[in-house]
Amino acid sequence: MLKIKIPFDSKKIINILLKIEKRIRFVISTLLLSFLMLFSTFFLFDKAWFFIPLLGLFAYALTYFSIIESIEKSEWLTLFILPVFFTISFYLFYFLFPVRWLTRVPFIMIYGVSIYAMFLTSNILNVGVEKSLQLYRAAFSVNYFYQTVIVFLISNILFSFRVNYLINTIVLGIVMFPLALQILWSIKLDLILEKTIYLYAALISIIVAQIALIASFIPLKASLSALVVTASYYSLAGLINAYLDNRLFKQTIREYLFVWCFVLAIAILTLGF
Hints:
Number of helices: 11
Oligomer: single chain
Strand content: under 5%
Largest sheet: none
């Protein structure tokens, strides 16, 4: 039997992709993901088993297409966590709203703007590994903001669906670990993740999971329970982040504790009513 070998040169393909201007790649990836997200909204929740891995795979592949230059070692994980997790959580969050064009259009617009911002952020963090950039602090802030959004979306989904308290604890514990890993990695942007980063990420995920477990037994609205979990992650990750970055001042501690106490006070007052 005659065998035909089709030559495959990955370097040649990468060189072709690199000829496309980076911002154009961002736009192409944003449009493709937004179209896929829009397409997925026409199907009921019983098709989620199909769209969750599909959206995750496309988010990873198109993030790679967008920031293809110089991805090494730990970056194959850390640079892709944000767009993949956001895409999946945003897709699931859509099912909490009425299925109609009035909600579908702004939903897709918000997703498109957000995923484009994440491509920019991942690109800055990628380049920031090799050289210091003035845009790094802005990218870090955007990264941190969307992390808290992801935590809120996933928490809200779980509490809204009123799943078993063990599922709340396990799912949020699992989700928190890679998010915490990514935000702690972004402090120094090392190509190799240190053992300390893994330990602190595990600590954050365990504590937040325990808070989610407690929140599962308190008769709060889903959005408020999610807000308590999100504030816990935001404050805890922020404090550990500041500690590892040698910026853990008294003012910093007060700011993060104020946010957590303020949200907790709102939740307690709501219980009274």
